[in-house]
Amino acid sequence: MTARVGVVTFPGSLDDRDALRAVKLAGAEPVALWHRDKDLHQVDAVVLPGGFSYGDYLRAGAISRFSPVMETIIEQAKAGMPVLGICNGFQVLTESHLLPGAMLRNNHLHFVCKDQKLRVENNTTAWTSDYAQGQEIMIPLKNMDGRFTADRRTIDELEAEGRVVFRYLDGNPNGSIDDIAGITNAAGNVVGLMPHPEHAVEPMIGTGGTDGTGFFTSIIKRLVNA
Amino acid sequence: MARVVVDVMLKPEILDPQGQAVQRALPRLGFEGIADVRQGKRFELEVEGPVDDAALARIHQAAETFLANTVIEDFVVRVEEGQ
Question: Which of B66, B69, B73, B74 to mutate to test the interface with A (most CBs of A within 10 A)?
Fold first, then answer.
């Protein structure tokens, strides 16, 4: 039996197909989930993909956060189900308060689209166990609202508890506090990051590497060993 | 129908690059003497029925959970008079 990993499609999601494909390439069974369907169809983990759900109206992720599927995901995530939020998915996770902080417009006000070097700062989460602690990886980054922010106390807490999972290297692309690219919750089952691992799983496209594959192989190991 | 206005602003400690871009453009257009600009959002809610304490409490709740993200934003709810 292999792991079933769901990927939610919201109106305005863009990277749901790539995420489903990455799940499949890693060896799990991809399951398409629909924003209006509360049923998670017996998946073992969920990916919230990138895009501009609901046109980013109000705030990025603010309307998706109240969609029917999110009711179940929030409940299950609190019970320990692994959830990965990529880009817009990360924004949905902060808006849902499954992760602390909030996302703001890039400090330079330009859309960013580039290959981004990251350092894996925590390889004990459900989604990063296949990386080495401190490993440097290159995956694409593309967003408008990527500036992670939180009050100083929250940041100090994240840093002290090792909950900063990824940090930008070679320059901060959006003005995020402490070069933070991704974080996790206290339990380590919910992870959010701005860059896109699902676009770096095949040598032929994207960065030309497969540095993103580890997210999807990590979760399979976690679920199969669970 | 009565109108209730919800003003949402980024908290003072949050950098507002949009406001800064507007502020920098003002002198170029000949509008001198503006030291700072902060950009926010204004929601106009047309309320069915009386705007009593219960209605205002509901709107306050909507503002707190949805219209504003209180991690980064402050909001003010007020009834617009004289319509």
Answer: B69
Dist. CA A48–CA A44, nearest whole Å: 14
Residue from A221, A217, A167 nearest A25 by CA: A217
- The residue ranges of every structural domain in chain A are 4-225
Please tell me the total count of domains within chain B: 1
Give average pLDDT by consecutive 10-residue segment, chain A, 226 residues: 92 97 97 97 98 94 96 98 98 97 95 96 98 97 96 97 98 97 98 97 86 97 84
Superfamily of domain A4-225: Class I glutamine amidotransferase (GATase) domain (3.40.50.880)
Cβ separation A175–B15 shorter than 8 A:
yes
- Judging contacts by C-beta atoms under 8 Å, the chain A residues touching residue B17 are 105-109, 175
CB A173 within 8 A of CB A148: no
- What the block records as the tokens of A187 is 């339990």
Q: Catalytic annotation on A113?
A: no
ipTM of the complex: 0.86
The residue ranges of DSSP E strands in A49-98, in sequence order, are: 83-86
Short-list A44, A111, A54, CA closest to A84: A44
DSSP code per residue over A7-39 = EEE-TTB-SHHHHHHHHHHHTSEEEEEETT---
For residue A75, what are the contacts with CB-CB under 8 A and spacing of at least 6? Answer: none
